[in-house]
């Protein structure tokens, strides 16, 4: 992506590489909209103002390529006679909009971050390695611009987990039937009680075990909240539960009892094997989903941490 706007936008069809020139971005947008079933590439949309009208179209994909700073500096030596200090100054101007002049402010590529669909870090040693990586990314796959149902609902579960007030971990769950949301839930203390993160659950807030004191957890799990919200009658048959963590044993038996037929999760849990065994015996499909990296919502915890979480 070019750091500077081009006065004459161009677009190249993917197959024959013939360039098409347009007097402005409005004409470019009109043309690609009329020919949306063909594939075009442009590097002339370099500001947020120019890109936003294209982002609204369901066929547009914004690709970002970057590389470590020192890698880019070394590559630039073949065509630029520039010191490292000057190169870094130019980099900061393009990426962050920094300028030595108080009266001028360069366009910031950093401001485009939320619009990017795919990011490629080009730290490869050869063009062939880069091309091979791009082939694996499969830029023309429709899932890059329109998520699958699994990606859609798992992203919702990740978002729901942000409402969690449990001190132990963030978990979100979405209960679905026929690709329609029945209910959502996140973990935390029951209605009317003090939130866990405000001291409402002694178990989750206690860092050391105390003898002779009851420290039972009073937090409802995300899956429990979703099931309670929906109720058995609304769950019905063929319901699917999406959760950003594999259900614990406590939730597994309730999921089975309410008639859920498929459970999709992301992060591992210490009792996965036991839960999987019960699901298998009850005829409930359990599968793991690897989230699409294009979604910017971070998982509640990374897998390395989740694998050691105590029930």
Mean pLDDT: 83
| Distance linking N and C termini | 47 Å
The SS-based structural class is: alpha/beta
Oligomer: single chain
What are the segments in which pLDDT stays under 50 over at least 5 consecutive residues? 1-7, 293-311
Protein name: Deoxycytidylate deaminase
InterPro entries: APOBEC/CMP_deaminase_Zn-bd, CMP_dCMP_dom, Cytidine_deaminase-like, dCMP_deaminase-rel, Deoxycytidylate_deaminase_dom
Keywords: Hydrolase, Metal-binding, Nucleotide biosynthesis, Zinc
Cofactor: Zn(2+)
Task: Write a brief structural summary.
The protein is of the alpha/beta class and 311 residues long. Helix content is 34%, strand content 15%.
Which helices and strands appear, and what pairs or packs with what?
Layout: E1 10-13, E2 20-21, H1 25-34, E3 40-41, H2 48-55, E4 63-66, H3 69-76, H4 84-96, E5 118-121, H5 127-137, H6 149-161, E6 172-177, E7 180-186, H7 202-205, H8 222-235, E8 239-245, H9 249-257, E9 262-267, H10 272-282, E10 285-288, H11 303-306
Parallel strand pairs: 4-5, 8-9, 9-10
Antiparallel strand pairs: 1-2, 1-3, 6-7, 6-8
Explain this structure to me?
The chain has 311 residues and is an alpha/beta fold. Helix 9 packs parallel to helix 10 (272-282). The protein is built from 11 helices and 10 strands. Helices cover 34% and strands 15% of the residues. The relative contact order is 0.09. The longest helix is centred in the C-terminal third of the chain and has 14 residues, at 222-235. Strands 7-6-8-9-10 form a 5-stranded mixed sheet, with helices on both faces. Strands 2-1-3 form a 3-stranded antiparallel sheet, with no helix packed on it. It has a two-stranded parallel ribbon with strand order 4-5.
């Amino acid at each position: 992506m070019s750091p500077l706007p081009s006065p004459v936008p161009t677009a190249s069809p993917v197959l024959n590489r013939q360039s098409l020139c347009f007097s402005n971005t409005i004409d470019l947008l009109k043309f690609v909209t009329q020919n949306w079933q063909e594939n075009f590439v442009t590097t002339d949309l370099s500001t947020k103002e120019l890109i936003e009208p294209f982002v609204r179209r369901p066929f547009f994909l914004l690709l970002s390529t970057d590389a470590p700073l020192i890698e880019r500096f070394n590559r630039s030596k073949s065509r630029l006679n520039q010191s490292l200090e000057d190169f870094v100054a130019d980099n900061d101007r393009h990426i962050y909009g920094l300028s030595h002049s108080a009266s001028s402010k360069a366009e910031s590529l950093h401001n485009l971050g939320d619009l990017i669909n795919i990011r490629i870090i080009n730290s490869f040693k050869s063009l062939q390695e880069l091309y091979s990586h791009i082939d694996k990314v499969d830029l023309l796959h429709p899932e890059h611009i329109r998520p699958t149902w699994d990606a859609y609902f798992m992203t919702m579960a990740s978002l729901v987990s942000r409402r969690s007030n449990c001190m132990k971990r963030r978990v979100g769950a979405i209960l679905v039937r026929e690709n329609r949301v029945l209910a959502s839930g996140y973990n935390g203390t029951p209605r009317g009680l003090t939130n866990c993160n405000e001291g409402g659950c002694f178990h989750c807030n206690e860092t050391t075990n105390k003898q002779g004191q009851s420290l039972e957890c009073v937090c409802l799990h995300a899956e429990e909240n979703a099931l309670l919200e929906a109720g058995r009658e609304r769950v019905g048959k063929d319901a699917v539960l999406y959760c950003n963590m594999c259900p614990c044993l406590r939730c597994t038996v309730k999921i089975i009892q309410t008639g859920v037929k498929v459970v999709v999760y992301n992060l591992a849990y210490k009792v996965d094997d036991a839960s999987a065994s019960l699901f298998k015996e009850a005829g409930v499909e359990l599968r793991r989903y690897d989230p699409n990296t294009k979604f910017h919502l971070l998982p509640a915890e990374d897998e390395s941490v989740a694998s050691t979480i105590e029930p």
